[in-house]
Structure formats: structure tokens, C-alpha cells
Amino acid sequence: MSQFENVTAVKKANIYFDGKVTSRTVVFPDGTKKTLGIMLPGDYEFGTDTKEIMEIQAGELKVLLPGDSEWITISGEGEFTVPANAKFKLQVTAVTDYCCSYIQE
Questions:
Q1: What mean pLDDT is reported for the chain?
Q2: According to the UniProt entry, where is the signal peptide (predicted)?
Q3: How many domains does the chain have?
Q4: Minimal CA–CA distance to 69: which of 55, 84, 89?
């Protein structure tokens, strides 16, 4: 889906890693949330509270998922899922556009 209809956009940005990762929250009528953001090149580690589906719209990165020893490379578009209450690492090598969905189970 290339656009979202009938949503609420939260005005305040989410800013991480000294501004190298930013996003905006979008809230859907059913209460579910997504963030739309940009990551600049760098190495990052994130933690999750809920299951997350990361959709990469454009960019270049490697991701190390919890429990894995092999990095996954995404160039252009791609997707990965992170379980709830976990940490994952990213090595972003080009400006990356992403959409993160938060899944309540």
C-alpha cells in the first residue's frame, strides 16, 4: 500500500541517535500504529516492546535479528520481522526510508 487513508499523524517526531534516525507516528482508526521514518548511515541497536514488521521502502542496510549470527542484507526494498521484547542491530550504509508496523498479539 503506497498511502494510508483516514489516519491521524502525530505532529511530534521520534528522534534517535542524535537525529540520525527519525520517524513520525501514524495512528489508524482501530488504534494500531505505524511509524514512517528515515535512517542515515550508521550502526544502531533497537529494542522492541511489541512485535515489529519493518518495511524498507528504499535504501541499503544489514540487519542482525535476535538469535541469528548471519546479517541479512537489504538493498532497495525489503522486509524483516522482529519479535516482541527483543533487540536487533542495523548497519545502515545509505539513507534508508522505512515503515514500521507495531503488531499487538
A1: 96
A2: none
A3: 1
A4: 89
For residues 61 and 55, give the distance between their C-alpha atoms in angstroms, rounded to a whole number: 12
Kindly list the distances between the CA atom of residue 65 and the CA atoms of 8, 37, 50, in Å, as whole numbers in the listed order.
Answer: 30, 20, 15
Range of the domain at 25: 8-103
Whole-angstrom distance, CA of residue 18 vs CA of residue 68: 28
| pLDDT beyond 90 at 63 | yes
- Say if residue 91's pLDDT is above 80: yes
CA angle 16, 20, 23 (to 5 degrees): 60
Q: What CATH number is attached to the domain comprising 30?
A: 2.60.120.10
